[in-house]
Structures are given as structure tokens and as C-alpha cells.
């Protein structure tokens, strides 16, 4: 969903990314590279010859193995690249694109090539550097007929180019190595995430495993997110100044950071954040704008962005989840700009989509700032083009039937395609495929992560190794490890939905080993006293009512805002826990600060796995532990 040629593959933790289980290295005589250029190749759909086929032997490249770099064009204008390493690990790794594509993703290909995968990429049917092909223009044929292949380019961008490139790549591998790949993987985010879903839906035999991140799968709907965020800022005085984002972000985190039981700069699940701009932001006196407050018009715009979009009174697009207001790569540059909304990243993505992509015939003079209406425009958008561009089919049973596996992920702090849409698709797949979904799909929502990467969360995740293990050995992924920062980075478990990470009350909050992935179960809590002085050496007492039928479960720990319980008394369903005030972590001063208390319980009395490999430890605990969790307001002073 990013514009231009930005890399859409989230960087893996390459120090831990091995060649994969059972991957033998296959050599190919280096002098065979030149002969690939003379291959007679045709595309699958039209049977037309591949054009401009070249093969270049690359002996020296930074951090890359020697390889044969093959390039060509599939009719009419689908450029592709295939890189054949020497030696080869026997597997295929294709990467997705970003934004409106139009380029070969050489940078993303390097991630697979350095691990001796054959790697491939496509420009999806158009070269964005050519006149009339930048942005969305590739799908428009002007009156002078200067872009006669526009219709086919739209189809190729929608789904055909990735499939045809995969087919051609496998033909080239067979010719070069005299062997087909043992396993094939697709890895992409944003537009690349949509491409991955499209492959699973339309061409389930192309890949054994797919990593699909932040997918722009509901393409027409995602184009309407731009108007959802930008149109509220057009009214006089309503544009949100970038210099006020720090104030807005602080107010959000002051209200919601503690709601997952630990003040750590992350909002675990923004759906639980009850931030209210009218109550939690300072309104300018007499509505006179100043840097320390928000005007009525600015507050109205913020509320509309959080509320989402409606068409004729019915919900159309969920509102922007809270948590990305002040982070780098968050509201600025996506939906806030220092001078004008038409200089935001969302503007760059959608202004020409309304001219050339979403209507049929295209409307090159369309100005969505003046003409767009949530009540009328959605019904005017081309359903036929939607069928070309959207990867919305939740029936992945054909992909599952041939052994396919998928890791789906999205950052909770993504200001691009809304993570709530991806969550909706996940539920649609589960509802459609039933019990088969657990052997097909794992979904990860990453707290604090922006669009595909970045943000304040632990965004560096190795998605490929667990996928390859699942495909090749049947080892089902559980919690993964995410990292943030350099040197000694913060690490956290990235939990499979619907599990979340909960701190055990001891050890560093920057070490994944001190967290557990659990499913949360609501519980009633009463926190006493309701007024707390952080400078005191007093105690805090919590009474928690646990659910019925606790037979077979034991409480492993009880935690309140990072503090372990100093004393626990349990009688039947009632658990009373005492906490030392000085043990609370990073609690802020304020009225009605939300304290969250959780009791981690496990079945069968399993131990704490101290000393075990962190990843294995977290994976083994999946499904064995829950957190009984409740919250209450406390007035905090010092």
C-alpha cells in the first residue's frame, strides 16, 4: 500500500533464518547461465513467447552467492526477474510488491537469495518509469490510444502477473538445475499481502507456503480509507497540525497503555482503548487555536477518523485503531501534513486511483476531494474491476487440500490498510473452512507495529522459518519472537490470534522470556483503595471473581501493572491478591487511571520451563494457559 518503489517485505531476523529443514544444496554448472537466454518459453494463458530473455552470470555480489540473473517480459508488458543461486537449497522464494508496483523488487529478492533460494519478482505488468505508467495511470488508455494494453495491465496487476511469473520461474529452474523446487514460498506485505491471498484463492497450486502481511485484499474498500481520513480535515480550521500529534499521542497512551496490565509504550489491543477526544484532550478556551489545545473543528476531525465511515447510515470502514498518533510513520505522514492534506501519503495513494482504477470507464478529471460521497460513490465503483483487484474469497479449502499453509499478519498501529479489515477476513476464513483453518492459517496482530514494519512495537519478525517448518516438517507455529531496536533489542512474543502476551511479573519487560502467550477470559475485579499515592510504601488489594468450573487449573501468577502479587489468597472462585505500591511499573499520575489485573492460570500444573529455548517454551504453552483479567479505575497521585 506504500507508494512508489518502497520495499514491502518485512526484514527477517536473518541471524536466525536458516536454509530450512531438510534443504540440501544443489550445484549447477556456472557455464549453463548463458544458455538460459536461448530457452523457448511461453506464457500459460495466451501461449505467447517470453520476450527480451537475458541471463547474466553474477560471480561477486555483497553478501549474496554467485547466481544467474534471468530477466524477461511476459506478454504484453510483465517484466520479471529470476535469480538462480549456486549452490541452490532446492526451494523457491517469490516476493511481492508495494503500492501500485511497476518495478522488480531486487532488494526483497536478496533476502531469499542470500539463503540460497531461487528468488523471483515481477513488475506486475507495467513499468512505472515509463511515461503514462506511473501510479495508477497504467490502467488507463487515453483517447490517443497510447496505452492500448491498459485493460490487460489491470488484470496483470490484479492477479495474472504473479501467477505467470511463478510458472515461468519453475520452467527456468527445471531447465537450469534439471530439477523442480521441492517447496515454493511467497512472501509479501501490503500489495504483496494481497498478492499472496490472491495466489491462495485463484492459484492454490503455485505455492506451498504464503506469508501475507497487511494485505490490501479488499481493494476498493481500502481506497476509501483515504477519504475517510482526509475529508474530515477539509473544513475550515479542521486540519490536524503535526505539531499537536505528540500531545494527542501522549493523551492516548496515558489513557490506554495501562489497559493490558503493563505501562510499556505499547497498546496491546486498541479495541479496548476507551480514549475519548472530548473528555481526554484539552479544548481551546473560546475556541482560540494554540499549540497546547485542540479547537472544536480539530476535535471533530479526530473523532471522525476514529469513528470510521458509514454509507447511508450503515458501517462501511472501521475507524483507525488508536496508538499510532505520534509515532514515526504514523499519523504523520499518512494522514497529517504540515501544509495540506493533499500532501499526505494517503493522498499520494488514492488521488489517481479514483481517476484511473476504481471506475469503469475511468474518470481522469475526477477530484475525490470535491466529488466523493460515502453515500453515493461506493455504488458507482466498478464491481467488475473489484473482481479483478480484490482477494476477498474466504474459501481457502483448495489451498488447504494441497497442503498449503499461510501466515497472515498485520501491525496494530498501521495507518495504511486497516488491521480490523484483516481481522475480519481472518474470521471469514475460519467461519468458511471450520476446523480445517487451524491446519491452514495462523494470524498475528503485532502491537505497535506500523505498515509492514516500523512503529513502536517489536516489528522485526522471522516469518519465513516457522512457515517453512510448518510446510516441511508439520511443526505448527505458535508464538514467534519479535524484536525492536539495535544492540540489545527489546524482544516480545508475537502471539497467534486470539492470544496476547502477558508479563509474568518478574524479570526485564524487554525480554520475551518473561512473557506468556495466553487467551484472556474476563473476570470481575475490585481494586482497593481507589486512591493511590505513588510515593507511599503502602499496599494495593485486588479481589477477583474467577469463572466457574476451575477444576484442573492452578494460578501461576497474579500481576497488576507489572507488579507480582506479594500475597495470594484463593478461596473457591474468589482470589484476593496484595501488591506493594513500589512494585508497580511506570504508572502515571491521573484521575481514573485504568489498572488491569490478570491471573495467569495453567492446566495440569506444568512448570515454568526455566532455561528452555524461548521460542519452544512459548509454543509449548499455547492453549495450556489463560489469563483471567479485569480492570478498574484508580486515582493516582504522588
Task: Describe this protein's structure.
This protein has 638 residues and is an alpha/beta fold. 25% of the residues lie in helices and 24% in strands. The chain has 19 helices and 25 strands. A hairpin with a 5-residue loop joins strand 13 and strand 14. Helix 3 crosses helix 4 (191-202).
User: Strand pairing plus helix content: what structural class?
Assistant: alpha/beta
Subunit arrangement of the protein: single chain
End-to-end CA span: 46 Å
Count of alpha and pi helical runs: 19
CA-based gyration radius: 26 Å
Largest sheet: 9 strands, mixed
In what order do the strands lie side by side in the largest sheet?
Answer: 1-2-3-5-4-6-7-10-11
Provide the β-strand percentage band: 15-25%
Helix fraction bin: 10-25%
The residue ranges in which pLDDT falls below 50 over 5 or more consecutive positions are 1-23, 605-623
- Number of separate strands: 25
Which descriptor suits the 3D outline? globular
Fold blueprint:
Elements: H1 33-36, E1 51-58, E2 66-74, E3 78-86, E4 91-95, H2 106-113, E5 118-122, H3 150-177, E6 183-189, H4 191-202, E7 209-213, H5 219-223, H6 225-230, H7 245-256, H8 277-280, H9 296-307, E8 309-311, E9 314-317, H10 331-334, H11 345-350, H12 353-356, H13 368-371, H14 377-380, H15 383-389, H16 397-401, E10 405-411, H17 419-433, E11 441-446, E12 460-461, H18 464-473, E13 480-484, E14 490-494, E15 500-503, E16 515-522, E17 524-528, E18 531-533, E19 539-545, E20 553-560, E21 563-564, E22 567-571, E23 574-580, E24 590-603, H19 614-621, E25 625-637
Parallel strand pairs: 4-5, 4-6, 6-7, 7-10, 10-11, 16-25, 18-25
Antiparallel strand pairs: 1-2, 2-3, 3-5, 8-9, 12-13, 13-14, 15-16, 17-19, 19-23, 20-21, 20-24, 22-23, 24-25
Helix pairs in contact: 3-4
Amino acid at each position: 500500500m506504500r507508494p512508489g518503489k518502497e520495499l514491502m517485505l518485512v526484514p527477517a531476523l536473518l541471524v536466525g533464518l536458516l536454509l530450512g529443514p531438510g534443504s540440501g544444496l544443489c550445484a549447477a554448472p556456472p557455464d549453463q547461465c548463458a544458455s538460459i537466454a536461448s530457452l523457448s518459453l511461453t506464457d500459460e494463458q495466451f501461449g505467447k513467447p517470453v520476450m527480451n530473455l537475458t541471463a547474466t552470470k553474477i560471480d561477486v555480489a555483497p553478501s549474496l552467492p554467485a547466481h544467474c540473473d534471468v530477466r524477461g517480459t511476459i506478454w504484453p508488458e510483465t517484466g520479471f526477474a529470476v535469480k538462480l543461486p549456486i549452490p541452490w537449497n532446492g526451494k523457491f522464494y517469490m516476493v511481492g510488491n508495494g503500492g501500485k508496483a511497476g518495478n522488480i523488487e531486487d532488494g526483497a529478492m536478496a533476502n531469499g537469495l542470500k539463503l540460497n533460494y531461487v528468488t523471483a519478482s515481477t513488475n506486475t505488468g507495467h513499468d512505472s518509469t515509463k511515461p503514462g505508467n506511473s501510479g495508477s495511470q497504467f490502467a488507463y488508455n487515453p483517447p490517443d490510444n497510447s496505452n492500448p494494453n491498459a485493460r490487460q495491465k489491470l488484470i496483470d496487476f490484479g492477479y495474472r502477473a504473479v501467477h505467470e511469473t511463478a510458472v515461468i520461474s519453475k520452467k527456468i529452474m527445471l531447465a537450469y538445475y534439471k530439477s523442480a523446487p521441492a517447496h515454493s514460498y511467497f512472501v509479501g506485505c501490503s500489495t504483496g499481502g494481497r498478492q499472496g491471498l490472491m495466489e491462495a484463492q485463484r492459484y492454490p497450486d503455485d505455492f506451498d507456503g504464503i506469508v501475507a502481511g497487511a494485505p490490501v485484499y479488499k481493494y476498493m474498500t481500502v481506497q476509501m480509507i483515504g477519504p475517510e481520513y482526509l475529508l474530515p480535515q477539509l473544513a475550515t480550521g479542521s486540519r490536524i497540525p503535526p505539531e499537536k500529534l505528540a500531545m494527542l499521542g501522549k493523551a492516548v497512551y496515558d489513557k490506554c497503555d495501562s489497559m493490558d496490565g503493563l505501562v510499556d509504550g505499547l497498546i496491546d489491543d486498541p479495541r479496548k482503548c476507551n480514549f475519548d477526544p472530548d473528555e481526554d484532550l484539552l479544548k481551546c478556551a473560546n475556541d482560540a487555536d494554540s499549540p497546547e489545545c485542540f479547537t472544536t473543528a480539530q476535535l471533530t476531525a479526530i473523532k471522525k477518523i476514529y469513528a470510521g465511515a458509514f454509507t447511508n447510515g450503515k458501517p462501511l470502514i472501521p475507524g483507525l485503531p488508536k496508538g499510532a498518533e505520534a509515532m514515526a510513520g504514523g499519523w504523520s505522514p499518512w494522514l497529517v501534513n504540515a501544509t495540506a492534506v493533499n500532501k499526505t501519503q494517503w493522498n499520494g495513494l488514492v488521488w489517481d486511483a479514483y481517476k484511473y482504477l476504481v471506475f469503469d470507464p475511468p474518470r481522469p478529471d475526477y477530484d475525490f476531494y470535491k466529488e466523493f460521497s460515502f453515500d453515493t460513490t461506493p455504488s458507482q465503483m466498478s464491481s467488475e474491476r473489484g473482481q479483478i483487484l480484490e482477494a476477498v474469497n474466504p474459501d481457502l479449502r483448495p489451498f488447504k487440500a494441497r497442503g498449503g499453509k499461510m501466515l497472515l499478519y498485520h501491525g496494530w498501529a498501521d495507518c495504511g490498510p486497516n488491521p480490523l479489515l484483516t481481522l475480519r477476513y481472518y474470521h471469514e476464513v475460519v467461519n468458511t473452512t471450520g476446523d480445517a483453518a487451524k491446519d491452514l492459517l495462523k494470524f498475528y496482530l503485532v502491537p505497535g507495529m506500523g505498515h509492514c514494519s516500523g512503529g513502536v512495537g517489536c516489528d522485526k519478525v522471522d516469518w519465513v522459518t516457522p512457515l517453512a517448518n510448518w510446510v516441511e516438517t508439520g511443526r505448527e507455529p505458535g508464538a514467534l519472537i519479535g524484536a525492536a531496536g539495535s544492540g540489545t533489542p527489546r524482544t516480545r512474543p508475537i502471539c497467534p490470534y486470539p492470544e496476547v502476551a502477558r508479563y509474568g511479573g518478574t524479570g526485564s519487560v524487554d525480554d520475551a522470556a518473561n512473557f506468556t502467550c495466553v487467551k484472556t477470559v474476563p473476570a470481575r475485579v475490585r481494586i482497593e483503595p481507589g486512591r493511590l499515592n505513588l510515593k507511599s510504601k503502602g499496599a494495593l488489594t485486588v479481589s477477583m471473581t474467577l469463572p466457574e468450573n476451575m477444576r484442573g487449573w492452578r494460578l501461576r501468577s497474579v500481576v497488576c501493572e507489572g507488579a507480582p502479587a506479594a500475597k495470594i489468597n484463593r478461596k473457591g472462585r474468589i482470589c484476593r491478591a496484595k501488591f506493594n505500591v513500589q512494585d508497580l511499573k511506570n504508572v502515571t499520575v491521573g484521575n481514573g487511571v485504568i489498572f488491569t489485573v490478570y491471573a495467569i492460570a495453567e492446566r495440569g500444573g506444568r512448570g515454568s520451563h526455566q532455561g528452555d529455548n524461548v521460542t519452544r517454551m512459548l509454543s509449548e504453552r499455547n492453549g495450556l494457559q489463560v489469563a483471567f483479567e479485569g480492570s478498574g479505575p484508580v486515582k493516582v497521585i504522588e
